[in-house]
From TrEMBL:
Residues 66-208 form the NADH:ubiquinone oxidoreductase-like 20kDa subunit domain. Its main location: periplasm. Belongs to the [NiFe]/[NiFeSe] hydrogenase small subunit family. Its cofactor is [3Fe-4S] cluster; [4Fe-4S] cluster. [4Fe-4S] cluster 1 binds at C66, C69, C162, C195. This is Oxidoreductase. It is found in: Periplasm. Heterodimer of a large and a small subunit. Keywords: 3Fe-4S, 4Fe-4S, Iron, Iron-sulfur, Metal-binding, Oxidoreductase, Periplasm, Signal. It holds the Pfam family NiFe_hyd_SSU_C. One of its GO terms (molecular function) is metal ion binding.
Length: 313
């Protein structure tokens, strides 16, 4: 039986162009992304409705980044619309209408009002050299802002490889001393790396957090539901072809290797991410499906350790 709250939830989504069919389609995709059985799609949908009733406050910080992760979020309109109905974004430099002193006041007010209760989402690496002087917002360095805001959050989620591990900003010679959030200020984070990250993984992480479900992480702080297998494990090109050299290197399991881009430098066997199943742009495609080798963007040490991109590891 449909409740008034769930009816309102669907009405809001439909007003943003997300039909019930679209919503259930993404619940199905999210269920698969979280490694759950298809029979649990209804439960996942119910969790999203429940989260929408709670709408935890979120402070989204931008440090050294290209805003590509926010763009990935915004250019996945259905998933983005669903996420924006499950969280209350109190501060986001790209999305908010406020600017200048008004924007800074919004940040300060949100952090103090929801101290210990808000989720902090971080996009971008933190500069640490010369007391963080390589990056500033409103006269404060990224390092100062990180130390001031992040410890007051209930939990911190790093979206994109830059905030998780330093990303391209930390590539050699790295004069700014850029690092991921944990390395920069010593606070544990949930990392959703990728260049850009996938918004489905953010939605899955938020749902698990709001449901007080333990989020199993790997040694690099990545949720296992999204980063537990390599890109190669689920690559759609694994079919109808044998490559003796590759089988010898990676094992007999790969005997059905097909159209493999490994010789073109594909980093799929060394990269942990759910790109083949979650995909991008409303689950349209992902690089390998479009014919481009994986560049390993969700791994610590990307860019230095994964280049040259078109040479075998």
């Amino acid at each position: 039986m449909e409740t008034n709250s769930s009816k309102k939830f669907y009405e809001v989504l439909e007003s943003k162009g997300v039909s019930r069919r679209d919503f259930l389609k993404y619940c199905t995709a999210l269920t698969a992304t979280m490694g759950l059985s298809y029979s649990l799609v209804g439960q996942v949908a119910a969790k999203i409705e429940k989260a929408a009733a709670i709408r935890p406050p979120v402070v989204w910080l931008h440090f050294s980044e290209c805003t590509g992760c926010s763009e990935a979020f915004l250019r996945t309109p259905d998933v983005g619309g669903i996420i924006l109905e499950t969280i209350s974004v109190e501060y986001h430099e790209t999305l908010m209408a406020a600017a200048g002193e008004q924007a800074e006041k919004s940040l300060h007010d949100a952090v103090e009002k929801y101290k210990g209760k808000f989720l902090c989402i971080v996009e971008g690496a933190v500069g640490t050299s010369y007391n963080g002087s390589y990056g500033k917002v409103s006269g404060k360095t990224f390092l100062e802002i990180a130390r001031e805001v992040i410890p007051k959050a209930a939990a911190t989620i790093c979206v994109g490889s830059c905030s998780a591990y330093g990303g391209i900003a930390a590539a050699a010679p790295n004069p700014g001393g850029y690092k991921g959030v944990k390395d920069a200020i010593g606070i544990d984070t949930i990392n959703l790396p990728g260049c850009p990250f996938n918004p489905l993984n953010l939605l899955g992480t938020i749902l698990k957090y709001l449901d007080n479900e333990k989020i199993e992480l790997d040694d690099y702080g990545r949720p296992l539901f999204a980063y537990g297998e390599t890109v190669h494990d689920n690559c759609p090109r694994l079919e109808h072809y044998e490559n003796d050299e590759f089988v010898e290197e990676f094992g007999s399991k790969e005997a059905e290797l097909g159209y493999c881009l490994y010789k073109m430098g594909c980093k799929g066997p060394e990269t942990y991410n759910n790109c083949p199943t979650a995909k991008f742009n409303d689950a349209t495609s992902f690089p390998i499906q479009a014919g481009h080798p994986c560049i390993g963007c969700s791994e610590p040490g990307f860019w230095d350790e994964m280049t040259p991109f078109y040479e075998e590891m």
